[in-house]
Amino acid sequence: MKYSISASVLALAASTTALPANKQHQKHAKRASPKVWLAGDSTMASGGGGSGTQGWGEYLQYSLSGATVENEARGGRSARSYTDEGRFDDIADQVSSGDIVVIEFGHNDGGSLSTTDNGRTDCAGDGDETCTTPDGLTVQTFVTYVTNAGKTFVDKGATVIVSSQTPNNPWEEGDFAYTGTRFVGYAETAATNIGDGAFYVDHGQYVANIFESLGKDEVDAFFPNDHTHTSPEGADHVAKAFVKAVLCADNDLAQYVSNSTSSVEGSCV
């Protein structure tokens, strides 16, 4: 079953006009220095989740040399809403061959479509399942949204890194506990579906490992407002965990990391 990246809501298709000529995807020439595009939610975005917080995407640039980060993450988004708002398309319109796109969602993708629709919840499942909302809209799965976006970027010559979501504070109940949500597995499935040119990194596990080593008191201080959004110091650790995952996976972004694997905290998993 084939879907358009730019619209998952089939009921709106009849009223949707074609993109103007200048918005059609074009393959841009390879840049001298690649851009690293970040697509995600508030845990990655500039400003994080409000006062006292910051997204980890704001710290990635400090570990890179020869590549420039473009943080297009937005608070409150899911793979579905990021698709429906045309944000994947906006990145695709600017991507050049040799660029790298990091996709990381999950925090806003859960919920139920049985009685209400918040515009973010995906259809449950790890394939091409679809769901119908109470308003009659058709919704796709997390895997479909990310797969379609990733294939668009790869077709334009970019490398895609599908990253598992960051964990909530694993110390909040007193003892350390981390179990990845179903979206961790969905992210890996999407990377596999995209195929050549795509890589998966288990960012959530790398963050959890670092947070376990730092201990409860230090990690609790990383979450000033809730159990999801980190302080700037916490975000810096989360960014380092992503870099460690990239180095350990030795994917296409690794060549632009200025730190050696051993100098970045944590161990390969």
TrEMBL record:
Pfam families: Lipase_GDSL_2 (PF13472)
UniProt-listed SUPFAM superfamilies: SGNH hydrolase
Record-stated family: Belongs to the 'GDSL' lipolytic enzyme family.
Entry's Gene Ontology molecular function annotations: hydrolase activity
Name of the protein this chain belongs to: SGNH hydrolase
Domain (SGNH hydrolase-type esterase): residue spans on this chain: 39-235
Signal peptide range in chain numbering: 1-18
Keywords of this entry: Hydrolase, Signal
